[in-house]
Amino acid sequence: MESQHIAPSAALKFWKSESEAVWLYQRFAELETNPSLADLYRRLADTEVSHVAFWEAKVAAAGGKVPEFKPGASVRLKAWLARRLGPAAMVDAVSGVESRAAGSYDGVADAEAVGMPKDERSHARVFGYLSRSGKGLGGDDVARFEGRHKAGGGNALRAAVLGGNDGLVSVFSLVMGVAGAGASRSQILLTGGAGLLAGALSMALGEWLSVQSSRELYQNQISIEEAELAEIPEEEKAELALIYQAKGLDQATAEALADRLLSDKATALDTLAREELHVDPAELGGSAWVAAATSFFLFAAGALIPTLPYLFWSGTAGIVASTVFSTLGLFGIGAAITLLTGRKVLYSGMRQVLFGVAAAAISFGVGHLIGVGLG
Fold first, then answer.
1. Domains of the chain, start order
2. Is 272 a residue whose pLDDT tops 80?
3. CA 177 from chain center: how many Å?
4. What span, in angstroms and rounded, lies between the C-alpha atoms of 229 and 237?
5. CA–CA dist 150, 35 (Å, integer)
6. Strand (E) or helix (H) holding 39
7. Taking 90 as the threshold, does the pLDDT of residue 143 lie above it?
8. d(CA 93, CA 186)
9. What rounded mean pLDDT belongs to the chain?
């Protein structure tokens, strides 16, 4: 979009939003017990103060008058909650606001001339980091918080559990549906096999598209970081220092670390990618093909559990055997989920059995009604 100079009414609107940001960050700084984070909030507020002064001058130059500042209801609510729950509890909410505001100055010539879009994107990244790294906790607090949680194998284990669960529950319900309709063993096997193949292919394609899209997004973001590092290295250094300060370092140490890391061109881009984008440039989220193949086989493995018993039994015996095998599989998946959630194995396993068997029972009942109706 072609850049446009700002109208007085729009300048007043920007003044209002920037003033609210100053007011809120100052409240956060007053309430924050972590000195490094309190200093970070003050520095963010200082940046917004310069934006407020800029828009005040624009309004005055256009012959307008800036009214007395009064924070809006939404900002007052955030501050009220921060007083009662702590600033950390409001990081997610502010992160969302900053993410939306990051593009508000794009195409506005007056704002672009003084680097406001870059400042807002920097703030969005800082709050995004705070949101992802422990709800605004810093330094040792984050380490202690993360040490109490079971995070090992997170994404890979989550994909494995969900893939197997999708295959088992969907095909178990499908098999029970046709069994309830009175289908023969060969028809049930054909239905289960078709459901297995269709579901596994769909899962594989979906996972490939998801991972490949993420890789392309990361590549684009890294390209942007590379361009910014070449064009505005001092601003990138300041942004990296803010991130390290958000981690719990004091301002001087954070700035010294950022300066040292970005002084080496061979590692500068790698550092920015890891700290700002939270991605390993060498991996970019992993291989789309490996993810697709993994999803295919995990779904297929889950789908085999309710289908295989019909190779050996038919009629009521097949239904019972498929239900027993599926119940054991569901309990196993529920137990695996506890590695992610930290819940008790019995609770999680039985919950998974309850939901899975309920879905299959409903399918069986509907299939039986349809079968009776057709008969």
1. 8-147 (1.20.1260), 154-213+286-374 (no CATH), 217-277 (no CATH)
2. no
3. 36
4. 9
5. 28
6. helix 35-61
7. no
8. 55
9. 80
